[in-house]
Specification:
This protein has helices at about 20-25, 35-45, 50, 60-70, 90-105, 115-120, 125-145, 155-170, 175-180, 190-200, 205-210, 225-240, 275-285, 295-300, 305-315, 320-330, 335-360; strands at about 30, 55-60, 75-80, 110, 150-155, 215-220, 245-250. By secondary structure, it is α/β, with parallel strands linked by helices. Helix 12 (about 225-240) links the parallel strand 6 and strand 7. The mean pLDDT is about 95. It binds tryptophanyl-5'AMP.
């Protein structure tokens, strides 16, 4: 890892980021044609989020896929910090994770960190973030994960699944490593300082549940990377395979800067927004366009810095050819922002209508997803022998 401090931490991230620079600072690898082809070979299909490099960087994706191909034990792991309602930025990695679960046919371990968000957010009680955990679970179910293959851990309620692993993990991490990775200071509360231990421990839970070293792949936004560097450093000394990652780009908010974030409600599109409200937010959004239609026709817009175009690119236009046409129509001034926004508003509204129907049905399904209804917590003694 270079010494430069990245602008992206798990809690603050800009959306129009220089993703190549991030890979360099984080020490991850760009996802090349080689890994894209390997994934396609293994699952028999390509996802537009890979083709287009919405998921654009990785660590050991190739080693994970080779292990899967050899028939070794593998699992997926991702998560959510319930600081508010789910927005479309959270849905993005879950759509891709669901595809991976379907294609690989393996279990997904899903961590909900109500403790993290209680520690991090001013003014929240633990019961608030815990209530939000259950709201967010409805969205997770609505995305379409398989109940028999998706195991949700809610930190505040299921800590016995993680605690023996976390105790071992904590002993391997010094405060100076934490500070460098997360930018903690003397005034950071000690809940936050302990928290990374739990996010890291969860990457080793599949090994303890199955009682054998398990290769874990973590699909998540690039903002979560600081945890994985530490997890990979300490994994071998605890007897676990290093967890692999596939990193996604961040959906911007509807304002001029910043990722879509629960802490900026006016520029986020929530899964609970009534479709009409979401449409209005989109119609009011900042764009890469010119101040007037006349200037737009003359000078063209700037799709590279436009949150509306990014929403098409990262989620709402899976057809590469159509995306490219949109890009050039904007750049050459043929497409005006109003029209581009209106089309997106329709697509988002349709998505929300369908998602909200599934979210309603999900209310009766929560129990089927909770790990506590399916597996016993692992014993204190590790089931994984150090190799
Ligand atoms: P959280 O709740 O901030 O984010 C959940 C997932 O959504 C991704 N994400 C985004 N992706 C695209 N565009 C955005 N604007 C955007 N905002 C968030 C995040 O990268 C993440 O994949 N500490 C974690 C919870 C957690 C976790 C994990 C996440 C625990 N274990 C394992 C991923 C993998 C958190 O607060 O995520």
């Amino acid at each position: 890892m270079a010494n430069e401090q990245p602008d992206v931490t798990p809690w603050e991230a800009e959306a129009f980021v220089d993703y190549n620079r991030l890979i360099e600072i984080f020490g991850a690898k760009p996802l090349t044609e080689r890994e894209a082809r390997l994934l396609e070979e293994v699952v028999g299909e390509q996802h537009f989020m890979i083709r287009r490099r919405v998921f654009y960087s990785h660590r050991d994706l190739d080693a994970f896929l080779e292990a899967y191909r050899r028939g070794e034990r593998t699992a997926l792991y991702t998560g959510r910090g319930p600081s508010g309602h789910t927005h479309l930025g959270h849905i993005l990695p879950w759509v891709f994770t669901k595809w991976l679960q379907e294609k690989l046919g393996i279990d997904l371990f899903f961590q909900i960190t109500d403790d993290e968000k209680f520690w991090h957010e001013e003014g929240y009680r633990l019961e608030d973030t815990n209530r939000m955990a259950y709201e967010n679970i409805l969205d997770i179910i609505a995305v379409g994960f398989k109940p028999e293959k998706t195991h949700i851990v809610i930190d505040s309620e299921d800590i016995r699944y993680l605690y023996p692993i976390a105790a071992r993990v904590a002993k391997k991490i010094t405060f100076s490593v934490q500070r460098a990775a997360f930018g903690f200071t003397d005034s950071t509360n000690v809940g936050m300082i302990f928290y990374p231990t739990l996010q890291i421990a969860m990457a080793f839970l599949p090994s303890e549940i199955y009682g054998e070293p398990t290769w874990v792949l973590i699909p998540a936004g690039i903002d979560q990377d600081p945890y994985w560097r530490i997890a990979r450093d300490i994994a071998p000394s605890l007897g676990y395979p290093k967890p692999a990652q596939i990193h996604g780009k961040l959906l911007p908010g509807l304002g001029p800067e910043g990722k879509m974030s629960s802490s900026k409600p006016e520029t986020a599109l929530y899964t609970t927004d009534p479709p009409e409200v979401a449409k209005k937010k989109i119609m009011r959004a900042f764009t890469g366009g010119q101040p007037t239609a006349e200037l737009q026709r003359k000078l063209g817009g700037n799709p590279d810095r436009c949150p509306i175009f990014k929403l098409y690119e990262l989620m709402f236009e899976p057809d590469d050819k159509k995306l490219e046409e949109r890009y050039w129509a904007c750049k050459t001034g043929k497409l005006l922002c109003g029209e581009c926004k209106r089309e997106l508003a329709e697509r988002v509204a349709k998505f929300l209508e369908e998602h909200q129907k599934r979210r309603e049905k999900a209310k009766d399904m929560v129990d089927k997803f909770l790990i506590r209804n399916k597996f016993d917590p692992p014993p204190v003694e590790s089931r994984v022998k150090k190799r």
